[in-house]
Design goal:
This protein is an alpha+beta fold and 185 residues long. It contains three helices and nine strands, in the order E-E-E-E-E-E-H-E-E-E-H-H. The strands form two sheets. Strands 4-5-6-7-8-9 form a six-stranded mixed sheet. A three-stranded antiparallel sheet has the order 1-2-3, with no helix packed on it. It is globular, with a radius of gyration of 18 Å.
Length: 185
């Protein structure tokens, strides 16, 4: 936009289509007076694959929800194993997240229905519910991906996987405003 590589109106919005490993993503760039003021995106379709999947770990059985949001993720509350999403517990979250990822990686729940290149668990998303914040979901997350790398947020595909889980849970009053901002295709 500002470099001139993409034609854009001086004021208004323009879509930029990006091919990524999981499919096609559309970024919508909003401009005012020839300046970019906001960018949002529409990700690939996202959905829950399986719920309450048992996974044997060194700390006992974990029960995870597996969801797709551009990649396949195992998601679970940190409290399930007495953990919290804090820097002090990061080593434990990484170790257990790796165990969960590798235990599920070849499981039937880690199979993409149309594209085998997307098979396998990309990461484990730990979340901690922090309560109601002005009627919206308020959670803390950490994503353990690859072979023990960490992202404090669930990244784009992980965020979409988490939103798919929240949407499938139904719109409780505490997150109805957040659900209204989710684009469904």
């Amino acid at each position: 936009m500002e470099t001139g590589r993409v034609a854009a109106p001086r004021t208004g919005s323009v879509d930029v289509v990006i091919d990524v490993p999981s499919g096609r993503v559309t970024a919508r760039v909003h401009r005012e007076d020839a300046r970019v003021v906001a960018v949002d995106f529409v990700n690939v379709p996202s959905w829950v694959i399986a719920r309450d999947v048992p996974v044997a770990t060194s700390l006992g059985e974990a029960r995870v929800t597996v969801a797709f949001g551009g990649a396949i993720y195992a998601t679970l509350p940190a409290a399930q194993h007495g953990l919290a999403v804090t820097p002090q517990r990061l080593g434990d979250l990484i170790a257990l997240g790796r165990e969960i990822k590798w235990a599920l990686n070849d499981a039937e729940q880690a199979v993409h229905p149309a594209d085998s290149r997307l098979n396998g668990i990309y990461g484990t998303i730990w979340f901690e519910d922090l309560g109601d914040a002005a009627g919206q979901v308020h959670q803390r997350n950490v994503t353990v991906f690859a072979d023990g790398e960490v992202d404090r947020s669930p990244c784009g595909s992980g965020t979409c996987a988490r939103l798919a889980v929240l949407a499938a849970d139904g719109p409780p009053a505490r997150w109805h405003r957040a659900a209204a901002r989710v684009h469904h295709r």
